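Standup notes
- DV: blocked on the single-chain target, sequence here:
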Amino acid sequence: MTSATTPAGPAAADYVARPGWRGFLGNALGLLAWTALGLAGWAARWPHAGGRGVLVVLAVEAAFVVACARQLRLALGRQVAFAVRGDGVFFGSGAEPRVVPWSQICAVELFRERLPRGQSRGSYRCVGVRAPGTSQVPQAGSGPAAQPLPDRSTARLLESGRPDLVPGSDGTIRLAYCRITGWRVSRARLARAVRQHAPAVPVIDGPDWPPGLSWGDAHRAFPPRPG
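- DV (later): unblocked, structure below
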């Protein structure tokens, strides 16, 4: 990977995604809804919740305000969040803008990332790139979906008879990705741009993160204890 800035004028064959107003409007609606709920709850029962209840309300309110400000800044700035261009795939929505060159990419992927318990829960659509590899290695600057699975999670997949769900088992690993928040990806336009710049690279539906077991898989991994 290499650090890079976005070109001033993208070529006709490039695919460029920029933050729009969706992220700001979504957070603004959430802020209004939470404010209305807070006012109604305050009148009904939250005064009896004491200082802790007030802190929870204010913390959530502050989170919405920060998210609104961030999305507004991105929408007004119109900075490139993601791009497919001649020198590779550009990720601009992370901590540091960077380009993954085509020589390292074996597929461009769309997938879904689910945050585990203990973090702010959510599910995000993502776009990323895959590289050849048989074992996922830590990717600096990328989120949890581009890191190795914890040993315990890997053991569960193996016990359930699903080694194919272990990252790297298909001969590819996740090299980089970003969440699609406040902007959209058109799969048709994405595929067309990839085909123009790297005809041998497919656009695929990548494996979701973390890998999910079916009920039958989970039953095999954790059989019921004899009564």
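- Follow-up: Helices lie at 22-44, 50-77, 151-159, 187-197, 215-221.
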